[in-house]
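Appendix C reproduces, verbatim, an entry submitted by the partner laboratory led by Prof. M.T., so that reviewers can inspect both the input and the predicted structure.
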Amino acid sequence: MIITTTHYMLLSAALFTLGIIGVMTRRNVIIILMSIELMLNAVNINFIAFSHQLQNVVGQVFAVFVIVVAAAEAAVGLGIILAFYRNKETVNIDEMGLMRW
């Protein structure tokens, strides 16, 4: 059995859907960040699959940039969550509105 671009697209769509469901239904900020990472990885699968299909490295370069942005987002996001947890002792998204003035 040959794995085609359609298989990668279906896998990517499934991962992206799971990420969307995680963002929309969960109230825990850490789970929401993990869901965002899952969605970014789904996009990376598409970039790599189309890069392979078109015999072009541009998709792979974009995937590396997405990985770099995801790492920076995780570092900054976890820093904000840690600071919030130290002040409020919760990571519930409903309490995040208290960070405003």
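The mean pLDDT is 90. Additional entries are available on request from the coordinating office.
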